[in-house]
Amino acid sequence: MLKSEFYKTWLAYFADGISNEDLQQYVVATGNLIWHIFSWELLDDNKFLKGPEAKAAYDQIDKGGALYTEWFYDEEVRKLPQQLHTAKALDEMVEVYVVAADFSWTYIKTHEDMCGPYFMKL
Questions:
Q1: What is the 3 state secondary structure string of the chain?
Q2: Burial, 40: exposed, middle or buried (Cβ in 10 Å; 0-12, 13-18, 19+)?
Q3: For 62-105, how does the pLDDT look when each residue is reduced to its tens digit (9 = 90+)?
Q4: Mean model confidence pLDDT for the chain
């Protein structure tokens, strides 16, 4: 899967219910990233976790078949290797997006220290 397909699929699952206007302005416009659905508070706080709670949820979730991409470096989405199954391991990366194979949950470690990480389970 290429990153462009991942991006569209991710938004279809996790940004469902966000107005097209808000998506255009805060998420898909040039210079924006998909995790802005969290940082711009386009979703209710009770729909996702952030910070230490997000890390704990990621550490506990089954990652069998999960996929990931390093946003600034990869063009393809790959199977999540065992060494990236902990939030601590992802902390060493610049910006990484992890998703269940069926897009039932996602974890994003952003490049911004004051934003995230974010975890959302549908």
A1: CEHHHHHHHHHHHHCCCCCHHHHHHHHHCCCCCCCHHHHCCCCCHHHCEECHHHHHHHHHCCCCCCEEEECCCCCECEECCHHHCCHHHHHCCCCEEEECCCCCEEEEECCCCCCCCEEEEC
A2: middle
A3: 999 999 999 888 889 999 999 999 999 999 999 999 999 999 99
A4: 95
Q: Which two tokens stand for residue 35?
A: 């995790």
Which residue in 83, 113, 77 sits closest to 97, CA to CA?
Answer: 77
- By the 10 Å C-beta count (0-12 exposed, 13-18 middle, 19+ buried), 120 is classed as buried
Q: Which tokens sit at 41?
A: 């508070």
What Rg do the C-alpha atoms of the chain give, in angstroms?
A: 13
Strand partners, 109: 96
Burial 74-86 (b: 16+ CB within 10 A, else e): eeebeebeeebbe
